[in-house]
Each structure stands twice: as C-alpha cells, then as structure tokens.
Amino acid sequence: MKLFKCQSCQQILYFENTVCEKCGHRLGYIPETAILSALEPDGAAWRALAAPGGSFRFCANADQAACNWLIEAASPESFCLSCRHNRMIPDVTLPANHAAWQKIEIAKHRLFYSLRRLRLPMPTRAEDPEEGLAFDFLAELPHADGPRVMTGHDNGLITIALAEADDAAREQRRVAMHEPYRTLLGHFRHETGHYFWDRLVRDRDRLEACRALFGDDRQDYGQALQAYYANGAPADWQQRFVSAYAASHPWEDFAETWAHYLHIVDTLEIARAFGLSTHPGLARGDELDASVDFDPYRAAGMAPLIDSWLPLSLALNSLNRAMGQSDLYPFVLSAPAIAKLGFVNDLVHAT
Length: 351
Known about the structure:
The chain has helices at residues 95-117, 167-176, 184-202, 207-214, 221-231, 250-273, 303-322, 335-349, and strands at residues 4-5, 12-13, 26-30, 35-42, 45-48, 56-58, 70-72, 86-88, 134-138, 152-154, 157-161, 277-278, 290-291. It is α+β, with helices and mostly antiparallel strands and 351 residues long. Helix 1 packs across helix 3 (184-202) and helix 3 (184-202) packs across helix 6. The relative contact order is 0.08.
C-alpha cells in the first residue's frame, strides 16, 4: 500500500479516509492513477486536485459509507472498478449487516489496490459471464438449523461469510482451527489465489511448471481436505509449505502462497513509503539489514523481496511483542516455500 497525502494541506492520509481531518476537504480514490485526491465541488460532480481538468463522481456504494472510490463523471457505470465485481451483498437495512459489510469492503478495496498494482486481468461477470470475477457477501440464515455460509471460490465466484467480519467470531474460528493468522484481507487474498490459478496457471498452459513445485492438483480435492481435517498437516509441513493448511492439497498450497505473496509485497510497499529500514546493532553481520529501496510490486525476482522481508518481518514481530500482541507475521519461510513464492512472482509479471 502507498502512503497518501492531501493535495490541499499535505496532511498524511490513510487509504480509507473520506475526509481530510486537517483541512476538511472531501477525499476520493482514483483507481486509474492509484491516487487519493482532495476534492472540491464541481456542480453535481467533483473536481480532483490531483487530476486537474477531470470531473468525477463517487461510486454508488459511497452512499452507504462503504466506498471512497471515484468514477469519471461521464461514465455510464454506477459502481467503481472494485464494487462492480459485487454480485450479492447482505440486507444492509439491518444495522449489524451494514457494519459487517463496511468492514468487508475495506478489505476488498485493499485487495483490489494490490491486484490493480500487479496489472492482473479481472473481468467482471458483465464482461465475462462464465469466468469473470465476482463476490457474494452472505449472512447466515436466522434459523439455527439452516445451512452455514462457507467462505470459498467456485469458478470465479468468491463467497465471503459475513460472520468473518465479526472480530470475536473470527478469532473463535481461528483458535478452533489452530490457525496462527485469520483476517478478512487474508481471506480475500487466499480466495483470489484460487481464481488466478484458473486464469494464470490452468488457462495459460503452466500446469506442469506449477505441478513441479506445488504437486499434482489432479488428486481428489474432497478426499484431501477430509484427510487434512481428520489428521492435520504432516509433521514436516514447515519444511515444505508456507502454512499448515497449504499442505492439504496443491490448490490450497498455491492459494496460500498467493496470499502470502500479496502480504509481502503490500507490506513492503508501505514500509518503503515510510522509509523503514533495519540495522540491529546486536547482529554480527548484515544479514538483518534491510532497506526497501525498490518498488515491491515491480520486483523482477523474489530475491530482493525476501532479502527485505525476512529482517523487516522480524522487526515487526518484535514490535508487536513489545505491545503484548501476537506476531504480525507468524510464519517461517523455508527454501521450498520461497521457491513457490518466486513462481507466483514470475507468474504475475508474465501477464
């Protein structure tokens, strides 16, 4: 994620900000240029200080305080480049659903920031009815014996259970499933890994190269997950996989690796924006020295990303522990896991 500032008063801004707290300007994100801009009224539209001469209006979901992205005023679209991928949202007349959906949209917009930075193909269902990327955000039925909403991916349709926006419920599930990390953004990153496996691996004749690293995806998926939930990951999973769940099936290995790749590049980008570097005085050599002096989203190979990420994640984990919090990145990257991350890096830069 980039660091943003108000073009009117130079105040530093968060990606999700809708108003500059210093000067009061309305703010809107222009996805085509990846800029959060201060705005001034222009009749029924808005003029962006970061894009002189342009005229914009807000995504329709801004009326629900669920989006701050802009559309060109002349566009026939009602929804922004992120929200037009929504197929179904919950009943937002219910306050609890509305609040949960707003949290989900924050995570989804951060996901789309990354996917657009990587210049990945993302047709909507209107553009590609068979294989376009779409999202359903579903609430559980009020009946106790009703079917549960399961987060997952099915041929371009990603379902996110609304309950995942409930911090207490999500933490309960994390503990019950023995996971070290579970977030809304993590769900989005993981599930889009399944989508881009279809688009970038299966559909672009990279199956054999992928299987050489991740294993044979033709093994029965249902049986593999059943075995994983019954027996857990193999004892040596940390030597081969980025997470325990990645050991369940090659598809899950790829999706987990994809998610971790997005974790890494996006965190390194904000570290670069803040000028963060590490040089611990206690270290004997320079193996823990790191400075992100490159654009992580445009890294030609995995080596510079890993060289920066390993020291930085150690520092971030240490900062979290100093605040009594769990590790920010509670994972150890083995050589095989790094090789898989490199495959993902090569894949996205070949598009």
